[in-house]
Specification:
single chain; alpha+beta; 2 domains; about 180 residues; Monooxygenase; SWEET_rpt
């Protein structure tokens, strides 16, 4: 089901959205209004691209570890925004200056957060794991599991396993 949602999202973002933008710019808008429409649309998409790592930055600050934030992505995001900003300063185009200033700020913030948290030790997290059978909350089972930095996905899943109690409608709730 997740693959279907991913395919639908790819189709919407790579085919339908650009198609609608092109159709609107060709059919509806003309002259300077068309340039303004395309400029604002492209600026918004670029700002969204530069702002997309904000959720990862929040996760890094909460967990105090940079495991989920790739350094090279943050570095090249900053480098890309800086290169475009330097180029755009000669053009004086606000549709390019504004998103790249946002990119410079976002990339700088990411690298600063990376520098702050890169050497912080990962704390062991105690998590209560509950398995709930759908429609049978009276039969709730609970288990305490310790997850550490070195835990692999397989080890975590083995710790969470309720092999004989799990049904097709089982769910695990991670409660800090």
């Amino acid at each position: 089901m997740d693959q279907v949602k991913a395919i639908i999202l790819v189709i919407i973002m790579n085919i339908i959205f650009p198609g609608v933008a092109i159709a609107l710019s060709v059919v509806v808008f003309h002259g300077d209004v068309r340039n303004t429409f395309i400029g604002i649309l492209c600026a918004l998409v670029t700002i969204a691209m530069y702002a997309s790592p904000l959720s990862v930055m929040i996760t890094v600050i909460r967990s105090k570890t940079v495991e989920c934030m790739p350094f090279l992505l943050s570095f090249f995001l900053l480098l890309n925004a800086g290169a475009w900003f330097a180029f755009v300063m000669f053009l004086h185009d606000p549709y390019l200056i504004v998103p790249n200033v946002v990119g410079l700020a976002s990339g700088s913030a990411q690298l600063i957060i990376y520098i702050i948290y890169k050497n912080k030790p990962t704390q062991v997290m105690n998590t209560s794991v509950e398995m709930i059978e759908e429609g049978c909350s009276n039969n709730m089972k609970s288990r305490s599991v310790t997850l550490s930095k070195g835990s692999s996905f397989r080890q975590i899943m083995e710790n969470l396993s309720f092999s004989d109690q799990s049904g097709p409608h089982s769910a695990y709730l991670l409660v800090p």
